[in-house]
Amino acid sequence: MRDGRRFRNALKLSGLPHHKTLDEFDFAFQPELDRRKVRDLASLEFVQAKSNVAFLGPPGVGKTMLAVALAVAACQAGFSIYFTSLDDLVRNLREAEASGRFAKKLQTYLKPSVLVVDEVGYLPLNRTDANMVFQLVSRRYEKGSIIVTSNKSFSEWGQVFGDDVLASAILDRLLHHCEVVSINGPSYRLKDHVNPKGGDQSH
Ligand code: ADP
Ligand code: MG
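# magnesium ion complex -> structure
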């Protein structure tokens, strides 16, 4: 019973946008997705190994849902978790820096066993922000897992981080121990629309 309470409290503090699980994911809707790879990830060996996971693909294919489902599973298994969009992450770090609390704020993102960084690529970052992300990724390197979602391929991350050298340095650390799951398929958000190939503007 105490475990149940710990789990619920941890979920509440995790910043997760919802608490969907892998069981709720309709793999039949996404036939090109490697179901086994996802099931293997759910064993949470990557958390033990302090390695990373990247979900790549266009809007609506379930990147965030899968990242959340792995985080929920990790939380249930007793690992500490935290969820943030890249945008919120850099905004929070920037504000902390302006008020002299950068080191303390960084701990929020360094402490959890699993940090989900959602939505890399929707908004490009400036150099200062990209530098803070680099600090975070290098400090977590081989110390704690990052689950990242992105609508951009890694080759486009130079544009996202506004600097090819910085993007390479981030990717170098992120990808050294990383399971990459590419999802190429239809948007689940548009599944009930008449023309499912119309393009998702909603992200
Ligand atoms: P992305 O992050 O790739 O843009 P999301 O994970 O936010 O997409 O998915 C969009 C919505 O569709 C969410 O409500 C999510 O739970 C749901 N969804 C996506 N793919 C599936 C799926 N295969 N089975 C069930 N629900 C899905
Ligand atoms: Mg998403």
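# post-check
Residues 2-16+33-182 form a domain with the Rossmann fold fold (CATH 3.40.50.300).
The two ends are 38 Å apart (CA to CA).
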